[in-house]
Amino acid sequence: MRNGLINAVIAYTIWGLLPLYWKWFDTMPAGEILSHRIIWSFVFVIGLITIQKRWKELKGVLRGWNTILPLIASGILITVNWLIFIWAVNNGHVIETSLGYYLMPLFNVVLAILFLRERPNGGQWVAIALAGLGVMFVAIDYGRFPWVSVSLAVSFGLYGLIKKKVKLEASFGLITETAVVLPIALIYWSYLGASNLDTAWSLPTSSLILLLLSGAATALPLLLFAKAARQLPLSMLGFVQYIGPSITLVLSVLVFKETVSPVLLISFSLIWAALVVYTIASVREARRTVQVANVK
């Protein structure tokens, strides 16, 4: 559980900082950035598996449709999530992306109860109520249906559920997920080139190098997340993820100069209080479990 927590914290910290990375390419269309992200992620994982000499092992675990079909679904879900996130960051909606990932733990708890039969304890229910209240204030203050936020929460929440259900080594899952959407990315890439609409190859050298490294920037947190998803309860994983949107929120105000209203500050304070309460309740529950096991 400790290793899972460490992997989750590192993954969500990287994701919290990613708006800085994608903002570097704000002159590029979101679809073009996404195509590069998919292609270079695939290349990165191919290199990783080749170095580890695990191709025979990969072939062995991908023989059944009961593994392949969920990975096809997760590949589509994560691609939708990437596209919405990149578009939102590069079109001045960073706070909406932060709200989306604040919403996701609540969605994760619902998924955990419905599909994994996880049952929060009393303190965890209090935390869920606090977080729900905070999100409600955000939605009211925002003034319209936050489709970006909801889409991000639902797509990544379902992605996390699949990663929890499919017991597959992280790099094997990621190469399959990127392979699913790789043909679409290559076709779109070819279309941009044939129509002289591509902008990537005219970027300054430093920016082009960063774009080529988008595979590593994408794959590393996903690999860590996949490991954490297998090691932590889904509901706990959802609450740890508050690290990411909190970093993103700070960036949206201090770096991207987006406006945060007093109501929004109150909402985020409630959500942070929920995180503290949930963490305390989870630690106490874990200690009680250990004590019971020792007695037995």
Summarize the structure in words.
This protein is mostly helical and 296 residues long. It has one domain (2-119, 147-252). Helices cover 82% and strands 0% of the residues. It contains 13 helices and no strands. It is globular.
Q: What separation lies between the terminal Cα atoms?
A: 21 Å
| Helix/sheet category | mainly alpha
Fraction of residues in H or I helices: over 70%
Low-confidence stretches: none
DSSP helical segment count: 13
What string, H for helix and E for strand, traces the elements in order? Answer: HHHHHHHHHHHHH
Integer average pLDDT: 84
Query: How would you characterize the largest beta sheet?
Result: none
**Percent of residues in beta strands?**
under 5%
Number of domains: 1
Characteristics of this structure?
mainly alpha, 82% helix, 296 residues, single chain
Please sum up the structure shown.
By secondary structure, this protein is mainly α.
How are the elements arranged and paired?
Layout: H1 2-23, H2 30-52, H3 55-61, H4 65-90, H5 94-115, H6 122-142, H7 147-165, H8 170-194, H9 205-212, H10 214-231, H11 234-240, H12 243-254, H13 262-295
Helix pairs in contact: 1-10, 1-12, 2-4, 2-8, 2-10, 4-7, 4-8, 5-6, 5-7, 5-11, 5-12, 6-13, 8-10
